[in-house]
């Protein structure tokens, strides 16, 4: 006997792979009476250790506002806004992405959806694999969504660039942890 999924947790970063995961998560959430928990995890530039060595609260606030704007922008790029007819709980969390997603999707009847990212040695060396961490450590089912085919057609230098948002986009952000 299978149990109904009550929460679909998806990791969002704004990358093309995470947008594919977001679309898949919305499809999964619509299949049953499920809530969509969209989580964007972020850490200060230079990591937590670097920030402890040279703390700057103003920069910390800016980075958090940027993370909130990236989460909102991801929904705008994928759907033109938050999808209707679905309970969406946006989360912006200051933590390493893999650990944060595993901690959020902590119920056996959750479904964790992550973008699998690019394949290949170069991609594994230059980027930590959040999807591999989640598959290895999650206590719930994990759906690893392959990268969109369009990603392979993009020049290498553009594949991981996040869209630049004007400073005005960060004003008035209200998506919080």
CATH topology: Rossmann fold
- Strand-and-helix sequence, N→C? EHEHHEHEHHEH
Beta-strand content bin: 15-25%
- Kindly report the average pLDDT value: 84
Strand arrangement across the biggest beta sheet: 3-2-1-4-5
Give the structural class.
Answer: alpha/beta
Highest-level CATH class: Alpha Beta
Count helical runs. 7
Give the SSE layout.
Blueprint: E1 7-11, H1 16-31, E2 35-42, H2 47-53, H3 57-79, E3 88-94, H4 97-104, E4 111-115, H5 121-126, H6 130-137, E5 142-145, H7 149-153
Parallel strand pairs: 1-2, 1-4, 2-3, 4-5
Helix pairs in contact: 1-3, 4-6
Brief summary:
The chain has 177 residues and is of the alpha/beta class. It is built from 7 helices and 5 strands.
Description:
41% of the residues lie in helices and 16% in strands. It is an alpha/beta fold and 177 residues long. The chain has helices spanning 16-31, 47-53, 57-79, 97-104, 121-126, 130-137, 149-153, and strands at residues 7-11, 35-42, 88-94, 111-115, 142-145. It has one domain (7-90, 97-105, 115-170): Rossmann fold, CATH 3.40.50.12370. Helix 4 (97-104) packs parallel to helix 6. It has a five-stranded parallel beta sheet, with helices on both faces. The protein has seven helices and five strands; from the N terminus they run E-H-E-H-H-E-H-E-H-H-E-H.
């Amino acid at each position: 006997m299978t149990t109904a999924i009550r929460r679909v947790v998806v990791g969002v970063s704004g990358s093309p792979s995470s947008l594919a995961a977001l679309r898949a998560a919305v499809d999964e959430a619509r299949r049953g009476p499920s809530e969509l928990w969209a989580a964007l995890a972020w850490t200060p530039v230079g990591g937590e250790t670097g920030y402890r060595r040279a703390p700057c609260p103003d920069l910390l606030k800016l980075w958090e506002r940027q993370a909130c704007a990236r989460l909102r922008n991801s929904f705008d790029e994928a759907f033109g806004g938050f999808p209707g007819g679905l309970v969406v709980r946006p989360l912006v969390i200051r933590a390493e992405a893999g650990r944060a997603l595993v901690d959020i999707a902590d119920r056996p009847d959750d479904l964790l959806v992550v973008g699998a990212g690019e394949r290949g040695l170069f991609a594994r060396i230059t980027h930590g694999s959040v999807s591999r961490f989640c598959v290895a450590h999650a206590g719930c089912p994990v759906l690893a969504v392959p990268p969109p085919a369009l990603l392979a057609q993009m020049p290498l230098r553009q594949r991981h660039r996040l869209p630049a948002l004007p400073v005005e986009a960060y004003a008035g952000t209200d998506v919080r942890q």
